[in-house]
Design goal:
Length: 223
Amino acid sequence: MPSLAQRGFAEWLGTAFLLAAVVGSGIMAEKLAGGNGAVALLCNTLPTGAILVVLILIFGPISGAHFNPAVSAAFAMRGELPWPIAALYIAMQVTGGIAGVWAAHLMFELPLWQFSATVRSGGGQLFAEGIATFGLLLTILGCVARAPSAVPYAVGLYITSAYWFTASTSFANPAVTVARSLSDTFAGIAPAGVLAFIAAQLVGMLAAVVVSGWLWRRTTKPA
């Protein structure tokens, strides 16, 4: 059984790598796409989906590979993760995400500390974040209930798809949202939009907990 320190560090390191991939691939995409937004988004999408599969495979046996406060909170609400551990996970995810953004900046020789100027607001984008998070949590909880070994691939494929079918490009993660506000690059979000995005994500998470509990009823309590 991994220690609490190992579990917390796995959440920190995994989220750091996730954000390094999201922001780093966005920077690279913007450099190489020649102004073609669709190509840039595709080049940002594929590495994000791919790294999620890898990270969940390697860190899943240690911490569960949440990398997302909405996921940790959902498992705590379901009684499958103690709230104090969920709080630790969330702190590690937020700080790890910020570290990952800074690592991307350093790799591309950009200023370490910056704020995004990319405005992401409006009812459509907020609704999209609620849908994106609802779908992500439903994917995770459904796989956990019926096909646990499929979680890494299902999550990677879901995020790859949701980048394109949601108006917000599917942040679906409060830690990712906070971290991306600290990068004035392709993947950024202006700080003014962060709280609204997180609120929409939490609504989507709550809906997924309710719906998953109805669809995949547990007959026994978790150990």
